[in-house]
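Teaching note: in complex prediction, the entire set of molecules is handled at once rather than each chain in isolation. The prompt given to students was simply: 'Predict the structure of this complex.' The entities are:
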Amino acid sequence: MEIVVNGEPRTVGAGATLLELLNTWSLDPRAVVVEHNRKIVRRPSLGDVRVEPGDKIELVQFVGGG
Amino acid sequence: MDTPFVVGGQTFRSRLMIGTGKYRDHETMVRAIEATGAEVVTVAVRRVDLDRTADGSILKYLDPKRFFLLANTAGCYSADEAVRYARLAREAGFNDFVKLEVIGDQETLLPDVAGLLEAARTLVAEGFKVLAYTNEDLITALRLEEAGCAAVMPLASPIGSGLGLLNPVSVRTIKRRLKVPVIVDAGVGTASDACVTMEQGVDGILMNTAVAAAQNPVQMGHAMRLAVEAGRAAYLAGRMPKRDVAVPSSPTEGMLD
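The expected output is the structure of the full assembly:
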């Protein structure tokens, strides 16, 4: 199924949880913050939230800045 | 002796806060930051690059146990956007401080003070310690303090301009009228700018480009450390009055015939 991750369409397995997606992309859940359809998903809940077709996911981290 | 530098209930050992953007490489950044002696470092919130062509998280290079990470909302042009970024930053789990920027104009990067006040009120109500990047307007600074900001951060001059402190009178006025810490943010170009800024009596200073874009960022980091300390010490010492005429330093008596 298709979802939108950081503004780009991505194909992922049906019924995947956010935690499974992070694992798929080799992302450490402690190093990223996840927004699911404009709502922040706290780390302990990442394994509970399943994505659905068309969902919008934002994955952010700290980068250099002033 | 100086008073401790306390912002939002947190005591910091250095009055110099430093940005982590625009360094030519991570090693230079780390060495330059170490040279400044800063404890507070600012970071930005941006999308992860799933294709790994970009650098990735800055936390690979900066130990969050050693540095106090102050997330900013740089690049946000509305209150709603800034609030969204602040919430994401807090969720990273380090602290509830945010350097709030709501930018009003792409060319000058001057703050949108209406949006800034709106975002500040929302974030303070959510328990954030808000350090608000603003211009040198006293009334906005007072409103930000009333809104519950932990610190007010007037600019020295536009972000990344290196023009130094353009309006010392207004910055001094803001410092005199506010009870919360006043930390000058943006516009410092070289060590003398930092020194003159601290001589106004402000509580601290935040800079990024002046160090990152120097020919030798590590050496400039060291220079900035000395300049901030010198400016603070000179402020505490109390400068001599200025005069339009000369006053001899050596005795006028005891001269030979």
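Point out the following to students. Residues 2-60 of chain A form a domain with the Ubiquitin-like (UB roll) fold (CATH 3.10.20.30). Chain A is about 10% helix and 35% strand.
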